[in-house]
Specification:
The chain is an alpha/beta fold and 253 residues long. The protein contains eight helices and seven strands; from the N terminus they run βαβαβαβαβαβαααβ.
Length: 253
Amino acid sequence: MILDKFRLDGRVALVTGASAGLGAAIAVALAEAGAHVAAHGNSRPPDATCEEIERAGRRALAVRGDLAERKIPQELLAQTLSEFGHLDILVNNAGTIRRAPALEYSEEDWAMVIEVNLSSVFRLSQAAGRHMIESGGGKIINIASLLSFQGGVTVPAYAASKGGVAQLTKALANEWARHNVNVNAIAPGYMSTDNTAALQQDEARNRQILERIPAGRWGDPSDLAGAAVFLSSPASDYMHGHVLVVDGGWMAR
């Protein structure tokens, strides 16, 4: 049955940035599809997300760490393997954003955004990729952005990092597809999360954004659930290096 190909029963996922927003929605969706989930948080513990995972009848593991620190990706993988014994799905969702005009953008903000949004994605993917190749395959899903394709305004580091995420996705897919490791990305549109609170509260900018979105609304984190389950499941076994846009039609305008 085709719907069986979307099931994740017995699989183990690690989702970064899963305390709230997109990461929490993805983590819970994977659990509802059958996966056990290690939910990562940094400044906020992912306890509420873990409770939702357990309510879905799956095992949950809360893991913590600042992905700006180089040792954390390997530690997250080690904790996940210690608890569950294997890893089938990695969702690189954690990210940060710092806003300032390019002429005033600080070296500190640039370094922080690139480290969290891009370098940690490589480090986690590399560590998970080694395990997945040795164990026969797996799924890696990176969270890209509309700014993987567009430049944005007053977010130079964020745009650069998300452009890098899209290209890293393709580069890893080129190397690992033959090992049955699927590396793909989701590029969310304008989603209603903490990261976009400033835009939502800016009356003029909020109006401009809504006028361009054919769907006529901001996305909800739950709008990514189907895409995440699909890219985590056997239904996407022949997809490699794709950046799947979920944006209410923004890129079609």
